[in-house]
Design brief:
Layout: E1 18-21, E2 25-30, E3 34-39, E4 44-46, E5 57-63, E6 66-71, E7 74-78, E8 83-85, E9 92-98, E10 101-106, E11 109-113, E12 118-122, E13 128-133, E14 137-142, E15 145-150, E16 155-160, E17 165-171, E18 174-179, E19 184-187, E20 193-196, E21 203-209, E22 212-217, E23 220-227, E24 230-238, E25 242-248, E26 251-256, E27 261-265
Antiparallel strand pairs: 1-2, 2-3, 3-4, 5-6, 6-7, 7-8, 9-10, 10-11, 11-12, 13-14, 14-15, 15-16, 17-18, 18-19, 19-20, 21-22, 22-23, 23-24, 25-26, 26-27
Amino acid sequence: MKTETSRPWNYLLFPFSSVKAGPDCLYAASPMHGIYEIDKEGGWEKLENGMPDEAAVNRLQLQHDLLHACTSKGLYEWDGDAWRNEGLTVSCYQYRKIGGTSYAATEYGLWCRSGSRWELIACNGKKVYDFINLPQYLILAHDSGLSLYDRFMDDWAHFELQASVTSLTVFRGHLIGTSDSGELLVGDKKGDFDRIRFGKTFMYAVLARGNSLYACTDRGLYRLVYMAGQVTLLSVQLGYPVTDADLQGDRLHLATLFQGIQTIQV
């Protein structure tokens, strides 16, 4: 059964790593303090049954209305009463289900499950942090750069960037990512990547929400736009580090390092 709890008195001190918006609630994860469901009245409930105490949560995902937790102890699904391991017990960084096929980015490559069995399909020996599955391409962000598989040509292209790429998205046909050193990576559509720094701002992640592309940084949340052929940052919410964001109607919910879960109108 779920354990009923009130909002922790020190929840604003929790470093939140991920937030996901459900139809009528929010889910928030703190790497060392667990996963919480926040109802529309603002009540907090810790979802802890079945989750190993020492598991650090890297990302939350809502896939087909099912909550999944990518953790240092594997991939877990919440069944409404308890966490159930999905058959992967290695560190997991990203999960998506496309049709009837599940994909998981792990410390030992990208794994796929279309029935009851997981199989390694790409980047054996690499830590895969994120991926994009497009009709023609499978694009992986890993601990030494990017790898791109062209399904039509049945061929791989590898881009060794001497940096870990920790998040990945597509914007106006450009591959956009972030590195573990806080850079913004922008593909030029010719096989090269511009590595951009905006002063001392550290980029945690880039993510597409609604029709916009956002950058989560140590100075706040920005929207990424193209102006005069260049990527530009437009401030959305500044003043504290933002690690993740998710959209629920006209409200954007932010996971922060020092200010709990914040909500702004967009």
